[in-house]
Design goal:
four-stranded mixed sheet; L-arginine/glycine Amidinotransferase, Chain A; three-stranded mixed sheet; alpha/beta; 16 strands; 11 helices
Length: 342
């Protein structure tokens, strides 16, 4: 279906725009709604501010939202952003928007079926958003007839793609998919050579273990994962993730470069339950990398990531209210790459 189409570029490749989901409806958020809007606005304003003095082409911020009230709020808090006002239920455009690429100036949109993270959270407009955005942006659609969220995969520029058994092989996505069936579908959809499987994601993650919360490519065959803090509820899984990545070999004997960044450790919600807070859920733009902050360990993560993104400003921004909705900055964003001929 997509074997003729080159793989989508990695996130550190040049971008035109970053789509950011804006909280448009109270119901998915409840009380944290207004604070989540403020934190997403601060995240977007960090990206816009980093463009000042940046010598290259800066990534533009584009909010994806629904309704006049949501648009007015977004414009008031982030006057430098563009707006796409379109029917959408929730905020998580990493999962509900297409995967974009450009080939010889033409915008392509890989679309997938979306079923509310295994039919847990169903909001009007979410399942249709991928196709609707592709049409609004006049992109050439490549439709893939299986359930997949963008946060469940991450890839580099050498044909390597990360994912988890926990999510992609969950029966609530594509029935009783075997690993072989999943690999074939992912390789065909993304044009990849190698699928790198991690068993489990973070605990208490209602996405069933999205990989963008645990491991991310930052360069060619170079991946980051997190090291545990003292009393970290995710410690056992974080150690297993690092071991999996360090032990992986391709059939040709290729290995990964693995760099660890500190995790936020034990982060609790208002009920005292620990949440899937992660510094790996950072967002990458041409001019900046924005790391979600939950406590004092965020600056340690910034220090660990800055050498991996030379030429970009790496900063932390509060994300605790955003996380009450189930994710963070990477989850609410989706990049539109620049022309591959530029």
């Amino acid at each position: 279906m997509t074997t003729h189409l080159p793989p989508p570029p990695p996130e550190w490749a040049s971008q035109d725009q970053l789509l950011i989901g804006w909280p448009s409806h109270f119901d998915p958020w409840d009380e944290p709604f207004a604070e989540a809007q403020k934190q997403i606005a601060a995240f977007a304003n960090q990206i816009i501010a980093a463009a000042e003095g940046f010598s290259g082409k800066a990534t533009e911020v584009v909010f994806v939202l629904e309704g006049d009230e949501a648009e007015a709020k977004a414009r008031a808090l982030v006057p430098g952003a563009k707006i796409i006002n379109i029917p959408c239920g929730d905020t998580w455009v990493r999962d509900t928007a297409p995967v974009f690429s450009r080939v010889k100036g033409e915008l392509h949109a890989r679309t997938f079926r979306f079923n509310g993270w295994g039919e847990k959270y169903i909001y009007p407009g979410d399942a249709e958003l991928s196709v609707a955005l592709a049409e609004r942006l006049k992109a050439r659609r490549i439709d893939n007839d299986f359930v997949l969220e963008g946060g469940s995969v991450d890839w580099d520029d050498t044909g390597c793609l990360l994912t988890t058994d926990d999510c992609v092989l969950n029966p609530n996505r594509n029935g009783n998919w075997s690993r072989d069936e999943a690999e074939t579908a992912l390789k065909n959809a993304f044009g990849m050579r190698h699928i790198i499987w991690i068993k489990d994601g973070l605990l208490n993650d209602h996405t069933d273990g999205h990989v963008d919360n645990i491991a991310r490519f930052v360069g060619s065959k170079h991946v980051i994962c997190q090291s545990a803090q003292t009393d970290d509820p995710h410690a056992e899984r974080l150690c297993a993730i690092e071991e999996t990545l360090r032990n992986w070999r391709s059939p040709e004997g290729e290995a990964l470069t693995v760099t660890t960044i500190p995790s936020p450790g034990r982060v609790l919600d208002e009920d005292g339950d620990f949440v899937p807070a992660s510094h790996a859920n950072f967002a990458v733009t041409n001019q900046a990398v924005i790391v979600p902050a939950y406590n004092q360990f965020a600056e340690d993560a910034v220090a660990a990531l800055q050498p991996l993104f030379p030429g970009r400003k790496v900063v932390a921004s509060p994300a605790d209210a955003v996380l009450t909705g189930g994710g963070s900055f990477h989850c609410i964003s989706q990049q539109i790459p620049s022309d591959d001929t530029e």
